[in-house]
Design a protein that fits this description.
117 residues; alpha/beta; Oxidized Rhodanese, domain 1; five-stranded parallel beta sheet; 5 helices; 5 strands
């Protein structure tokens, strides 16, 4: 991991997240911090639905501080995104990337939203 990236909160846009989701290295997780009802309406394929409370207790199962975390909320004003990112950082996460416009921007860009089976 590049040292100049460590310890910083980044923001990205849907096109970059979609591109990044096609490559598994370095390891990454997409964390959707919306509530379960919002998640079930549609989410980014492969995203884990976790709450800020879950993240305040520790990193998701199988994740390490070197895992890259993409944090997704409802829209640009969703304060859960920053709360989740700060919780991840408190547990040692080195690279946290927030989708600045959340699922609203993801959908507006025309990317698909998955639904639970």
């Amino acid at each position: 991991m590049d040292m100049h990236f460590d310890g910083v909160i980044y923001q990205t846009y849907p096109g970059e997240l979609e591109r990044r989701a096609r490559h598994s290295h370095p390891p990454f997780l997409i964390l959707d911090v919306r509530d379960a009802a919002e998640y079930e309406v549609g989410h980014i394929e492969g995203a884990l639905n976790v709450s800020v409370a879950d993240l305040s207790r520790g990193l998701p199962n199988g994740a390490t501080p070197a895992t890259e975390f993409f944090v997704i909320g409802a829209d640009p004003r969703d304060s859960r995104v920053r709360e989740a990112t700060l919780a991840l950082r408190e547990h040692g996460a080195l690279r946290c990337v927030e989708l600045s416009g959340g699922m609203l921007e993801w959908r507006q860009a025309g990317y698909p939203a998955a639904r639970p089976a």
